[in-house]
């Protein structure tokens, strides 16, 4: 890495908003590169020395001062000592959030190396550097080592992240992961802060604690020990705050061991019971069993009292000890009768359609469904493709029909749906811990296999309410165009867009519709995400109606379901999000290790998910289409950033100056040495497509041999265009034009490959050798690609036109 530029950094970093610093390589010693997101980290300075490179700046919105250092340590111990001393001095003179990472070429203990030689003096001095500098070495998850020798006999942990103590205070849950390596002998390391802030754990006081004399004594002792000065309200608040901390400590040591004491008491009592069945218990064992029973009863009573208080019940007098019932009441809600959608008209299927849905599948329907599928696709994880089903359908037909018949038995299918609705359960995450599973009161939830009912049935109910309001002239929609078409609402899954005249009656009707829908469905409308957008209305009126609906006030332009509304489609800024998203998806990093076919597949996938969605609503301007094509073209041919890369071209485009010969590369600015543009074979003229493929001595000799092979005498043209026209004039049978053109392509392709071998591999070029390649290639192309068989390579080499005419006659007879 002797030279680092923006193009190289862009290949590593996906996003455009980045900055970088680099220390170039020095001989065999590798270079150092640091890249960061400029939106998160703001650089104000650099640190540089032998074997390390660092940046100084502020991190995040909190502007936390940070020192980020990348290390590439030398191998000899003397140089390592200088590196460690320099880093230690900088850390001691600049206290703050230090993060030092890289290849230290040293281990901390013998367990960090497997095989090879470990120098104990180096190990000791490296540990002293870490200790003196106040650095923290995180354990690595996923791997034990980061360096693997090619022979696999030696492994070491040389790469690591070291953090200063202050860094650990700002990021309290840092973890260091060793990732899988590719061709490198080093493993990449990922450091991530996975802290989940669940908020402070709420404190709850349980009255059952007051039955413990030790607890009451603790309260009295702690309260008297607090010495707070100030006015009465402040003193009371502070004492209560301190007392709460003391109660937390007490409950942690006493109350939270109740479950453990209950289990231990049960186990001991069970052992004594078993022993008492065989022999008489001693007096001491009898007393122990009686004390354990008393302790068990007291602990169970304590647990039940806490459960009663959690359930917020006042049934203390009844003494119901059903703890499961109280636990159920923590989550249960009172049953109530909802309104129903009576009088609403819904779309219904006819009796004939109903019978058609439950009719068994016919063999012809199954066969048509299989034949409509791609033979290369597999319907399941077993890997058996539709091609297998098409071929072996007669063998597996009976089993497939039986499966479909059993699957679509009316009672069984209804039973499966009922099972999905009634047996689902969830577990809540409380303060980072999973609670016991409980059954949901609602039958469906998001991401449920049957969750489509939420969007179909429930949304259909809302559609019925709105349609009923429109029919009764309670809600007036908007007129589209000059006809009678009026639209009141549009629905997409669980999103609804209401459109109507800006009248107070429409607003009141909308509010009533929303309230009725909540009562009927049991769902709640998220008014925080809802907006009222007024078009050509008074701002004061809009504000009043927004308050009436208890929603936000919106304006155009805006986005709805990812589609921009009310924007000027002619402006480039309107389409900038689409362009940025396409750049991010088709980043150079994504395609670095993809083949040409893989890049094409990725381009098609991104196009399907991005631009096609927007183009189904809007007509893209010509300039935006050109920009999207440029991005896709650059990704396809491996271009990075602003650097262009020459694309491959079809041979038909030779006449359009797109073949990457030396003169065209110089035109594109890729070849800057204009003294090195001569033909690689004759070294007499500039390498142009016409010279390389026609006018060069080697190329003209090859063409004349081919003319002689075809039994024709022509004066060779002086350009690719003339030679192409001559080839058409010579011609084979009209019905086999494609096969005849294979010969011309074979000549051009052989010349181009020979030119590349001469430039990049220094291979010698001879016209007779090229002529043999043309004969062989044209024969196998015509035979394998066009299916032209029935004659041998020997016959083809003697007279290809005769072979083509013979094949044409056979084709005409057929």
Automatic annotation (TrEMBL):
Which residue range or ranges hold the Reverse transcriptase zinc-binding domain?
A: 643-703
Source superkingdom = Eukaryota
Q: Which residues form the Reverse transcriptase domain?
A: 398-564
Classification via PANTHER family: OS12G0587133 PROTEIN, REVERSE TRANSCRIPTASE ZINC-BINDING DOMAIN-CONTAINING PROTEIN-RELATED-RELATED
What is the protein's name according to its record? Answer: Reverse transcriptase domain-containing protein
